[in-house]
């Protein structure tokens, strides 16, 4: 490893980037788990409705993550080259883009949220009606959700992990307090969950926007720079859409196996998102450090960083697999008192465990390639896996009536 890369990334520096990122990444899925536990005790139908509506908002959050990753790499390379102002300017333009998309999502869900919920739930009925209502309310937080994603992106690029920690944790703690209060004492039921979601996301977005204002840089939209960001993020967006098509299809198939199956799928899927984002903390550190090394012209150091992050990712994945296997008999009962839901969740559990070691390596290398701005390979690999493997397999599971185990296998 070159001397400059060594200076950029001693173990303490990797930990200083990865650990706060881990907390930030875990905050949202941990809140969703709280939300799932609160709503799960309302009954099978509200839990299934949360699974359907929550999948759509997860799509929005995932697209925000894609935007954040693209901005992290761009900002990191400018920061590594010694131009902080240019790195912050990337954040300004990304925030305009994020806010615009968020407003479109919020408006779109007011018009078409009910129809989308019916499509995902496999037709009309109690689950579809409840999911549509939840989605229309929760979508009001989409502008804040995407602003927060853009803010995370540029702040990671300039290696500032303290402010994102505050800007994400505080709103999520507020929402974790609001959710049970609105659902039960206030008597709002499932709608209370949606209100708590929208409040947290809006507060977080406002905090990240205020951080840009404090930088005292021009806040004027620059269409040319936004177009450059879109061009660079194109492969990540296509890749993200391939992932989301897979997740949406999995939820749609699970819904066709009944309320217990889709409720169990919600539990397993949210736990999978949690572990994936925890593993992704290393990827974020890799994005920032590899991007900075390349911005400083240190290619040899960037390659050495890639090897280090791959080893760390594999070790973390093995650790998560052990913990998940140990919790197999206990964890599903935290989220539902329905014995059929718990029984269905156990069908997905072995596959959930088996994914973790490989996922650790994959996520770490993901960050390396994104930090380097080389995402075409990632795009192509994801498209082949989704279209050639995952999507045909889950619809085959539906056709052969293999149940939730078939979806996760």
How many strand segments?
Answer: 0
Largest beta sheet, briefly? none
Helical/strand content category: mainly alpha
Oligomer: single chain
Number of separate structural domains:
1
The separation of the N and C termini measures 40 Å
Total number of helical segments?
Answer: 15
Task: Sketch the topology as an H/E string, one letter per element.
Answer: HHHHHHHHHHHHHHH
Structural Rg:
21 Å
What proportion strand? under 5%
Low-confidence stretches: none
Helix content: over 70%
Mean pLDDT: 86
Cα shape: globular
Outline the structure in words:
- The protein is an all-alpha fold.
- The protein has one domain (3-408).
- Helices cover 86% and strands 0% of the residues.
- The protein is built from 15 helices and no strands.
- It has helices at 3-8, 11-40, 44-80, 84-120, 126-138, 142-157, 162-183, 190-214, 223-255, 259-295, 299-326, 331-335, 339-371, 376-399, 403-408.
- α9 (223-255) packs parallel to α14 (376-399) and α11 packs antiparallel against α13.
- The protein is globular and about 55 Å long.
- It starts with a helix and ends with a helix.
- The mean pLDDT is 86.
Structure described in brief:
By secondary structure, the chain is mainly α. The chain has one domain (about 5-409). The chain has 15 helices and no strands.
